[in-house]
Amino acid sequence: MTFVRTRLALDRMASGETLLVRLRGEEPRRNIPRTATEQGHAVLGEAEAADGIVLLLLRKG
């Protein structure tokens, strides 16, 4: 479900805009960067917060 929300957000954006996604859990952490890259978007950065949430910065391709 997290990727569906991410995909919808990316679809509404213009090419080159960035999106900060908060991820919780191991599956989204593995799958969202991979799938976003496969769809032509760029992963600009990834950082883990103290509470275990992963912050993922994407740029729409």
UniProtKB/TrEMBL annotation:
Source species: Belnapia rosea
Official protein name in the record: TusA-related sulfurtransferase
Database matches in SUPFAM superfamilies: SirA-like
Entries under Gene3D superfamilies matching the protein: TusA-like domain
InterPro entries with a match to the protein in the record: TusA-like (IPR001455), TusA-like_sf (IPR036868)
CDD domains the UniProt entry points to: SirA_YedF_YeeD
Keywords, in A-Z order: Transferase
Pfam families from the UniProt entry: TusA (PF01206)
Domain of life, per lineage: Bacteria
Domain UPF0033: 1-60
